């Protein structure tokens, strides 16, 4: 019992002393700031590998991977199909039926030099009688949604709405262009399925018609 009382009394004394004795001041710990470095060397990308399409095909032919290699490439070109159409005798506007048509470009030069992609079209000729041509035909491309393979990449190229005459002449139109410091990385111009249309003039013959679209990638802006 004496030991217990002594502890209780000692505790009481400490409390009492706390009212009259100033607590010692606390000094801040001494700190030290040092600096280190981190470094990395970036080189132009591998020119022997291909770049997969950002937009997967949804109907079996929605993709047209080119298999191109290099430091700046056209990776994907969706083939167009305007389906089966009944002639009216007059001018007609026909919608593309291939889902999610898109054009994809990769620039891994690492220079920010910019680029452009153009398209031109041959004439639409009957596959069984080449003398039958769709006179006055033209393909209309809408302004698409430009998307990157990496959502954090915001230096987007510019997509444009264009009309491409299907006349076989050298009159290529610019579909997408990247100014200086734009379009670095992988980018796709994704258009709505029925946004691409074909204009046909009146007086066309019945038949199956094909045309070749030629796409050209330039390594500077236009």
From TrEMBL:
<protein>
    <submittedName>
        <fullName>WxL domain-containing protein</fullName>
    </submittedName>
</protein>
<dbReference type="Pfam" id="PF13731">
    <property type="entry name" value="WxL"/>
</dbReference>
<dbReference type="InterPro" id="IPR027994">
    <property type="entry name" value="WxL_dom"/>
</dbReference>
